[in-house]
Amino acid sequence: MPSLHPTEFRVPPVDAVALETRAAQLATRSLKKAAKVQGLKLAIAMMDLTTLEGADSPGKVQQLCGKARRPFPARDDVPSCAAVCVYPDLVAIAVDALAGSGVQVASVATGFPAGRTDRQTKLREVELAVAAGATEIDMVIDRGAFLAGRYGDVYDEICAVKEACGDAHLKVILETGELQAYDNIRRACRIAMLAGGDFVKTSTGKVSPASTLPVVLLMLEAVRDHFLATGRMVGVKAAGGIRTAKDALKYLVLVNETCGDAWLSPQWFRFGASSLLNDVLMQLEKERTGRYQRPTDFSTD
């Protein structure tokens, strides 16, 4: 894509009080039994299970892929997760482990999590991950360039990464905890969407704060407004700090109330929170049996 004029990156100021009040109001909504069970299953289907540690091994990735395929082997009504996200050198392992399952293989790239490397290296990393079979790429934006006001550089880099992705979907990680202000988050969303990103994502999970209800509400409003202006749908991924089924349901309420039913799909909304899965499974069993299971009834990976 050609570079854009700086005026294209302008966004209206965010009313922080109104945003936070709206998020708090929506968080009070409660779901009754049938809707709650449906929501919990949908949350599982939207999860990207992730392992992004220096100690990652082929065995750990294979175990995580098994859990993504069958999160609760004793129950056939529990769906598979959306994706497994790994470092580029482990993509081939995940591809083999997930063959025929419908679970996507995602890979972080572009110098995750800091993004402090040159563009040629970033693009090469993307190309290698896609060549190994990754169907989704999670890139980090250059927060240094963004906070210095070099929005055109951020846009150009996302465009280049999108091209390197080929047919793979691109999730653009904003690292909202480092952007410092709602106005910055709104502008980063606009840049990512104009550059062709398929998803905007809150966080790498390595920085605090990560995902919060007001931030995700703001991002949902951004993708909704982009759709109304252009007709192109963009997804949102809430990643980092989401650990309970109760929290996951709050995010689903945000999606429904802000963007509508069309976004209530793994194609358009994701959770990046591996620690969330077991709590959701425990809640599902509680709804079925009337009592809580022990945490040790579920695998830890």
| Biggest sheet overview | 8 strands, parallel
CATH class descriptor:
Alpha Beta
Portion of residues in helices?
Answer: 40-55%
CATH architecture: Alpha-Beta Barrel
Q: Give the beta-strand count.
A: 8
Supply database-style keywords:
TIM Barrel; alpha/beta; 12 helices; 46% helix; single chain; globular; 301 residues
In short:
This protein has twelve helices and eight strands. The chain is of the alpha/beta class and 301 residues long.
How would you explain this protein's 3D organization?
Strands 1-2-3-4-5-6-7-8 form an 8-stranded parallel beta sheet. The chain has helices spanning 16-26, 33-45, 58-69, 91-97, 119-131, 143-147, 151-165, 176-179, 182-194, 213-230, 245-258, 276-289, and strands at residues 48-50, 83-86, 104-109, 136-140, 169-173, 199-201, 235-239, 269-272. Helices cover 46% and strands 12% of the residues. The mean pLDDT is 94. The longest helix is centred in the C-terminal third of the chain and has 18 residues, at 213-230. The chain has one domain: TIM Barrel, CATH 3.20.20. It is globular, with a radius of gyration of 19 Å. 45% of the residues are buried.
